[in-house]
Amino acid sequence: MLHSHNDPPAAVEAGGLSRYSEQKRRQILQAAFRLFLRHGFEATTMDAIAREADVSKATVYAHAKNKQELFAGIVAGRAALIYGSVELQGAESAAPEDALSRFARHFIQLILSPEAQGIYRLVVAEAPRNPELGRIFFEQGPRAVTQRLAAILEAQVRTGHLNVDDPLAAAQEFLGMLHGKFHLPCVLGVAGQPPVEELERAAERVVRTFLKVYGSMR
Amino acid sequence: MLHSHNDPPAAVEAGGLSRYSEQKRRQILQAAFRLFLRHGFEATTMDAIAREADVSKATVYAHAKNKQELFAGIVAGRAALIYGSVELQGAESAAPEDALSRFARHFIQLILSPEAQGIYRLVVAEAPRNPELGRIFFEQGPRAVTQRLAAILEAQVRTGHLNVDDPLAAAQEFLGMLHGKFHLPCVLGVAGQPPVEELERAAERVVRTFLKVYGSMR
DNA sequence: GTCTATATGAAGATAGAC
DNA sequence: GTCTATCTTCATATAGAC
């Protein structure tokens, strides 16, 4: 069996982990994530992860207690990263059309990105057998985004730019509409990745619809 | 190993299948569906299906070519059944508030039913490795419902009760909003099954929001 | 920490008797 | 069609050397 030559572990450094180990750790996490995305949790084997990461299986087990923990750690971590990236700078002070537009464009591209779709599939599939994973994903992902949007809406209400009775409910309507046209067909592989212009058009339409309901200057 | 006593197959009847065989077929399909819902595709074994159906594994293979086909057949069949049940009688002629209300209440209870949620998880999880399954589910399920709703909206536009520019887009907005508050948390197991009254309130809110945008008498 | 080698158990699928 | 028994492959996880 081929594998790269192995230097002996370097001396342990400040953090308590050798450089060597850190690199293997990254290899393992990346390989595992790639394979989980491609084959799902059950169909991904520890053998395949070791092969893809170019380490031995025993090394994989040295870095992760078992397959479950490897999986949950990776997926939760990536989900938080991705959903945390929704850009909201200055959204409270901008004109509502602009704030909502920017938010909508970011969000729709986020949820249609291949990585976000892959994570969505994994979490939806495994949540019943791994409730903690479902909880972490939901709270750090969709729920966090919803709450941030609700906060923006509330700020816009205070400045008189919007007229929203229930910011949380309105935020859920807004995000629901943004899923509308593309999310499910893409997740199911029925539609390919839509071109950016089409996404922007869809986002703009949702913003216009939303402002017809909650815009305060009509 | 325990199993029920086996009578020899009864004489073949009109349809070409013995009663005996039809019963085992039902046992197998039901058992497989239960297990797929509970454990997902990969983690469900043919051994377990045979055990749960109280037949031998060879009998399972006599009724289904392999695990893939057993799975796809069951899931697609149940999905079509469930989504086909959305009640739309007379929706074109009723007042738009009533038509949309009835539709919304049915739809939101449909997508939150345990069986629909289970199928959703299975299809989302396996669609990348089984594109045909994703396509069939989408077309017979969500897409069919969306188109029926769009047709209702169009009829309401013709009678002057609604003012919708793009019935398909509006239908997608409506259905997206109906997913909004409950669908994801329930699919992820973060929230339990909400009580019916709460679902009705949520449905009513969406209808009101929708009519603020597309109602023609304001 | 990292490797090779292996223990242990199941998986999907089929053979062959009835 | 249905069973029991089995083939073959491969899974998760660990032991033991370095």
Give an overview of the whole structure:
2 copies of one chain form a homodimer. By secondary structure, the first copy, chain A, is mostly helical. Chain A folds into 2 domains: 1-65, Arc Repressor Mutant, subunit A (Orthogonal Bundle), CATH 1.10.10.60; 71-214, Tetracycline Repressor, domain 2 (Orthogonal Bundle). The first copy, chain A, is 70% helix and 0% strand. Chain A is built from 10 helices and no strands. The longest helix of chain A has 28 residues, at 131-158. Mean pLDDT of chain A is 90; it is low at 1-16. Chain A binds chain B through residues 38-43, 120-129, 131, 134-135, 137-139, 142, 169, 172-173, 175-181, 184-185, 187-190, 205-206, 209, 212-213, and chain B through 38-43, 120-129, 131, 134-135, 137-139, 142, 169, 172-173, 175-181, 184-185, 187-190, 205-206, 209, 212-213. Chain A binds a DNA duplex (18 and 18 nucleotides) through helix 1 and helix 3.
List keywords for this structure.
disordered N terminus; homodimer; mainly alpha; Arc Repressor Mutant, subunit A; Tetracycline Repressor, domain 2; 218 residues; DNA-binding; 70% helix; 2 domains
Quick synopsis:
With 218 residues, chain A is mostly helical. Helices cover 70% and strands 0% of the residues of chain A.
